[in-house]
Fold this protein.
Amino acid sequence: MTKKPIKFEISHKSGQARAGLIETPHGSFKTPVFIPVGTKATVKSLTPEQVKEISDVVLANTYHLYLQPGHKLVEKAGGLHKFMNFSGPIITDSGGFQVFSLGAAYGTNLSKFAGTRDVKSSKSKKGHSLVEIDDEGVNFRSVIDGSIHRFTPEISMEIQHSLGADIFFAFDECVSPQASVEYQKKALERTHRWAQQCITYHHSKENSERQALFGVVQGGRMKDLRVESSRVLAEMDFDGYGIGGSFDKEDITTAVEWVTKNLPEDKPRHLLGIGEPEDMFEAVEKGVDMFDCVSPTRIARSGTLYTPEGKINILNSRFREDFTVIDKNCSCYTCKNYSRAYLAHLFRAKEMLASTLASIHNLYFIVNLVARMREEILEGDFAKFKEGWLQVYMNNNLN
RNA sequence: GCGUCGGUGGCGGAGCGGUCAAUCGCACGAGACUGUAAAUCUCGCGACCUAUGGUCUACGCAGGUUCGAAUCCUGCCCGGCGCA
């Protein structure tokens, strides 16, 4: 019997919501948890010290690190932890999302959320896919230089072994919300087959004693597919589960529940790429333990900031002479030291510090919101907290 | 004083007889962003209106030529440069 790379303990449940702890070879973190994204081995605009102040964990990306600087180089550097100077737990995504973002979505404004906007091509970007999918794997055209690269489940495993994250994901296909039912079924079957290949490959290596592998549930917005996917993967020997694919913004709750109900209780569930407060409240309630999302850092860089009363765009003219802080109850570094007017100035002047201060605030806000959810599960009233918090956040988008 | 080049929307700068309310930047105003192609992208930006259309006022000022002028002519005002 091989040694388990991670340990997951649930200390308390409230309905389907769980509060727990995950121990990894690089330290532990509490769940539910929000995990900042550092795709290319850096959380954009932040130093590792700034990230550590806010979060115990980060998530990086296999495809992007494979392209640049190359997984072999990272391995030579002593692995991702050493290379990026982050000693806490690191997670890597498999490249499965890039099958979508660089495929069906490339050059368009298509998101994995269905029906939220008209899909159109961006004028300044080419609208054709950089991706070719077949039953055995995916050919990617590099976004950096156009060269062609092949990903298979085994290759994704191999790369992720080189990167050396504590937790990593099976290579899946994130399917477009616009795909036909026939296609979704075909893709799901393929993803399941790939999942088994990932396990087989991973378990044949000694890395399986220090790196945990999560399978990824797909199935889009179709109940039968989601249920099937979660049941099939639940039978496989994964250390935890990712929930991926596309959703309906309005109906994300039900889609998540179709899945969590069929996953093993004793393994962590990670809702991939979700991070808006309203979505996380719903998902935590349905038993999700982990989240990661680019949203807090991406929107921060263009001046959108979270407040308990909804998001604000600091570039709006009304903030030019607003000498109050972003959120008077926030204890992040940014709110402790800088005014809205100063941030507005930094953004208008296109100063780098603008991105840094905004990212610090947004990450702190989101990470601590999920941490607070955990507290409410442990010793409060999660449902009541959720209702009260969302009431203020959703109904008050003007500040 | 003479010569010469030029005066266009908040700024820079196109246009050089009709398709010009005027290319394009910037600035400004607003929006988007959910396993990062992203310090990015989209939209708006003379005024007014019975608004996927219409009316008016506009390209230094005043006249003129022409069916029609930001674009041609004359005078004036203002600026750069050169020569006295």
Remarks:
- Residues 352-379 of chain A form the longest helix (28 residues).
- DSSP finds 15 helices and 18 strands in chain A.
- Chain A has two domains: 7-92+157-293, 302-394.
- Residues 302-394 of chain A form one domain.
